[in-house]
Design a protein that fits this description.
Blueprint: E1 13-22, H1 26-35, E2 40-45, E3 54-61, E4 64-71, H2 77-85, E5 88-96, H3 99-108, E6 112-122, E7 125-133, E8 139-148, E9 157-158, E10 169-178, H4 184-195, E11 198-206, E12 211-218, E13 225-232, H5 239-247, E14 251-259, H6 262-271, H7 281-285, H8 295-300
Parallel strand pairs: 1-4, 5-8, 10-13
Antiparallel strand pairs: 1-5, 2-3, 2-9, 3-4, 6-7, 7-8, 10-14, 11-12, 12-13
Length: 303
């Protein structure tokens, strides 16, 4: 298999186009992400747009585009995904200049095809999409929008926008991926070879009861980051092992969102009823000095 030096971009990624979650109920999920997280619903597809197997709602905030898709039928791949995993991340789509070239290069460096380059069109123009498989049931799509002026994708209709109080999220910061023991390096190599990512951080975490290790990789433009995590030996199961058991496969354990004012963002989320993990007091003693926010400020805000 050919090897692409890390830091070179064989696919010419332009950023994250959207992130798609498969959920049990798209309308309820959209209400949650709008009310709590401040995302604005901007487009939808479903029976009203001649989509017979799914209901999708597109949500936006800053540069984040989130697609919430629920099945309209009792069987089929969406229903099977929800039955196996519950609500979960299905697809991280990358915007590219040339889908066919990106797809072929990804295959050459070890990816497997889920959808070959396919053209979709409506009255607003055409887009080209291709999809490759990754860990578990998670996929990466390549999206080319050179000739499309619609709201999102073909056969999506705009939604009337109502004022939404945002939470200050600017973009997707990173995706944390839980993997079985011994698989992190495999997927680090996958992103290096096929996508030109570079390794930017490696860490081992050991507590009294559990342990895990992680490697972070990043695209050449420093816009897309994955933190790949696997469990290590410990007295008890780690959160990685718990995710693998209850989710039913490897996958994205969490999505991190970037904000320019974490104090205001956390305050907004709490005021809307979102429960947040409380850090122990010792956590703040371990924070590096010289950051924009003092340890006292973070501790006082329980961040």
């Amino acid at each position: 298999m050919p090897v692409m030096p890390s830091g070179e971009d064989p696919i010419q990624l332009q950023g994250i186009d959207y992130v798609e979650l498969y959920v049990g109920n798209a309308l309820q999920s959209a209400h949650f992400y709008q009310t709590i997280f401040g995302f604005t619903p901007v487009a939808h597809s479903g029976l009203e747009t001649n989509s017979r197997d799914r209901k999708s709602i597109v949500m936006k905030q800053g540069e984040c585009t989130l697609v919430l898709t629920a099945p309209l039928q009792a069987d089929g791949p969406i229903a099977e995904h929800v039955h196996r995993h519950g609500d979960g991340l299905k697809d991280i789509a990358f915007r590219v200049e040339d889908v066919a070239a990106a797809f072929e290069k990804a295959l050459a460096f070890g990816a497997r095809s889920a959808l070959p380059p396919t053209v979709f069109h409506d009255q607003w123009g055409t887009i080209t999409r291709a999809t490759v498989t990754t860990y578990g049931d998670t996929t990466h799509s390549f999206i080319q929008r050179n000739d499309f002026t619609g709201i999102f994708l073909p056969d999506y209709a705009p939604l009337e926008r109502t004022p939404v109080a945002t939470a200050g999220f600017a973009c997707f910061d990173h995706f944390a991926v839980s993997l079985p023991r011994g698989e992190v390096q495999t997927w680090v190599d996958f992103y290096k070879r096929g996508f030109g990512f570079a390794q930017i951080h490696e860490e081992g975490i050991q507590t009294e009861y559990s342990a895990m290790s992680s490697i972070a990789v990043q695209d050449p433009a420093e816009k897309i980051r994955f933190v790949l995590i696997e469990p290590k030996d410990g007295k008890r199961r780690s959160q990685v092992e718990e995710f693998l058991q209850f989710y039913g496969s490897p996958g994205v354990q969490h999505i991190a969102l970037e904000t320019s004012d974490i104090i205001e963002t956390i305050s907004a989320l709490r005021s809307r009823g979102l429960g947040l993990v409380t850090a122990p007091a010792s956590y703040y003693d371990l924070l590096p000095s010289g950051s924009d926010l003092s340890q006292k400020t973070l501790a006082r805000s329980r961040i």
